[in-house]
Structure formats: C-alpha cells, structure tokens
C-alpha cells in the first residue's frame, strides 16, 4: 500500500505541475494577444520614438515571443518572477509577498463564514426535508448563489456603512477587524450557498444508510446520531467541494478587494492588468493557479488518508 500511495502521490504531483504550467503558458500567450502596448501606457502618447524604443528594449518587448517566454520561465525558476514594468526596482515576488497576507485573511475569513452558516443551514434542511425549515434554508441558499459579488458589495456598503454607519467605509483602515466584515460577507455568501446545498444533499444520503438506522435502533439520541455518525461522514464531500471552490473564492476576492479598496492580490492584479504590467499579471495568475492546484492535491491526499474505501482502491 505504501508503494501504491507513493506512485499515486507522484502522479498527482506531476499532473498538478503540468496543470500550473499549462495555465501560466496560456495566460502568457493571451496577455500578449490583448490589444494595447505597455510602452504607450507607461510613457504616454507624447513620448519620442527614441524613448519608446529604449523602453521597449529595456522591457525586452522587442524580442520574439518565444524569447520572451524563455525569459519568463527563467524568472519563474529563480523565484523572482521578473520585475514590474511600472516599478522597475521591485520584483514581482516582492509585490506578491506584500499583497498575499491581505488576500489570505479575506479568503480564510470568507471560508470560515461560509462553513459556519452552510453546515447548520444544510443540516436543518436535511432534517426538516420537505417542511418549512427545508424551504427556508433552500431559499436562503438560492439567494446566496443568485446575488453577484459586484452587486452585494455596494449594497452592504450602502446599508451598513452609509445608512447605519456601523462598519467602516471602503478606503478606511483595512487592518482592523471591522473593515474585514463586509468583504468577508461579500465573498463568503456565494460559497455558503453552494456548501449549504452540498451539506443538505450529503446529509440526506447519509441519513438513509443502514448504520444510521442501526444507531437509532440502539436508542441513541437524535443529536448523537446527527453529530457523531451522520454529520462527520456527510462533511467529507463538503470539504472536497469547499476546496474545489477555492478558485472561485480567490476570483471573488479580486472583485471584492477593488470594491472595498483593500490591498491584496485582487487589487494588485487589476491595477497591473489595466497598466499592462505583464510580469505582475503573470505572477498573480501563477500564484492563484499554484494555490488552487495545491489545495486540491492536499484534499485528494486527505481523502485517501481518511476514507478506507478510497485507500483500499
């Protein structure tokens, strides 16, 4: 079994590495096909042809696309990820190190918010299947999926920031815990809805298993049956879905950080994209792809470790 697990780990790691390479290569190609010249963005329309040629040579944009791709892979290999077009003295890696803690806090708080609401909602919907509690929980989940971040964020600002003045407005000190509440709700609401529906479906399936019926026949209390037997097994697919939704969580953070004027990976990515700062855009996509693939790999390994059926297979 150990040899089989090592082979499985090697294959999954190789597949993850190939996936990241394919994603960043596709982004490299697409960003060079997008209309717009970084030299025009940096120097403006009034720059002389000599200055434009010098900057193009400095940024290595005068080289063939294949040579630029080789330089990009070299920058990835040495860990610097190249230098920003706008901040020539700053490496992309250093800019990402400054931005990532803010996005990490937002992502983790959003995931915690989503799980804290999704599991009780899903459990109530499963236990009250077909009744009022199920309809209320299902409606709440549908609303969470239907409301986009770009609309929910400003709505929360208007309600809790402008009208009630209970929470900080966008652009306020982003280091306080209060400033994290509205962005967390904005990012976590859609994920909460998805996980609530997943919890309901998984729990309904588990509650119909023979071992649950046996536990009830032994006289165990409903709470013991739910928390000790049913919910623990039902949460395995929920955890898998939560990890699979990490990419959506990060993409939601990109928009939300801009709405709430928070520093982070999303703000860095959008500013770099509109400034045509190609190395920074590539670095942001690389980090998102690495996080997404790594988390999914860890969840796969966790699944193998915790579920004997998968381990034996």
Q: What is the terminal separation in angstroms?
A: 10 Å
Using the coordinates above, name the CATH class of the domain at 102-275.
Mainly Alpha
Order of helices and strands: HHHHHHHHHHHHHH
CATH architecture of the domain at 102-275: Orthogonal Bundle
Shape: flat
Low-pLDDT parts are: none
Radius of gyration equals: 24 Å
Number of discrete helical segments? 14
Output the CATH homologous superfamily of the domain at 102-275. MetI-like
Q: Classify the secondary structure makeup into a structural class.
A: mainly alpha
CATH topology descriptor of the domain at 102-275: MetI-like fold
Q: Report helical residue fraction.
A: over 70%
Q: Look at the structure and give the mean pLDDT.
A: 80
Query: How many strands, what sense, and barrel or not for the largest sheet?
Result: none
Structure summary, number of beta strands: 0
Classify the beta-strand content into a percent band.
Answer: under 5%
Short recap of the structure:
The protein is an all-alpha fold and 313 residues long. The chain has helices at residues 2-33, 38-43, 49-58, 65-78, 92-127, 132-146, 149-163, 181-207, 210-217, 222-244, 246-259, 265-274, 278-306, 308-312. It has a domain at 102-275: MetI-like (MetI-like fold, Orthogonal Bundle), CATH 1.10.3720.
């Amino acid at each position: 079994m150990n040899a089989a697990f090592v082979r499985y780990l090697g294959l999954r790691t190789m597949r993850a590495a190939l996936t990241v390479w394919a994603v960043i290569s596709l982004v490299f190609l697409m960003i060079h096909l997008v209309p717009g010249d970084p030299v025009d963005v940096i120097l403006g329309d009034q720059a002389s042809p000599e200055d434009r040629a010098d900057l193009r040579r400095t940024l290595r944009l005068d080289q063939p696309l294949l040579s630029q791709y080789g330089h990009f892979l070299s920058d990835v290999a040495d860990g610097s990820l190249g230098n920003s077009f706008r901040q020539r003295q700053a490496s992309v890696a250093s800019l990402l190190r400054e931005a990532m803690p803010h996005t990490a806090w937002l992502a983790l708080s959003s995931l915690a918010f989503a799980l804290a609401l999704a599991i009780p909602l899903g459990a109530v919907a499963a236990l009250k299947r077909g009744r009022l509690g199920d309809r209320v929980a299902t409606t709440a989940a549908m609303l969470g999926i239907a409301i986009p971040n770009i609309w929910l964020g400003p709505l929360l600002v208007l309600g809790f920031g402008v009208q009630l003045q209970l929470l900080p407005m966008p652009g306020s000190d982003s280091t306080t815990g209060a400033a994290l509440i509205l962005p967390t709700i904005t990012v976590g609401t859609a994920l909460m809805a998805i996980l609530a529906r997943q919890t309901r479906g998984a729990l309904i399936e588990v509650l119909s298993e023979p071992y649950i019926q046996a536990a009830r026949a032994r006289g165990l209390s409903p709470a013991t049956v739910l928390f000790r037997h049913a919910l623990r097994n039902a949460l395995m697919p929920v955890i898998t879905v939560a990890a699979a939704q990490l990419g959506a969580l990060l993409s939601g953070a990109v928009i939300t950080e801009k709405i709430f004027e928070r520093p982070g990976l999303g703000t860095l990515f959008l500013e770099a994209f509109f400034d045509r700062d190609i190395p920074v855009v590539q670095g942001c996509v690389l980090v998102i792809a690495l996080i997404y693939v790594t988390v999914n790999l860890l969840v796969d390994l966790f699944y193998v470790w915790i579920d004997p059926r998968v381990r034996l297979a």
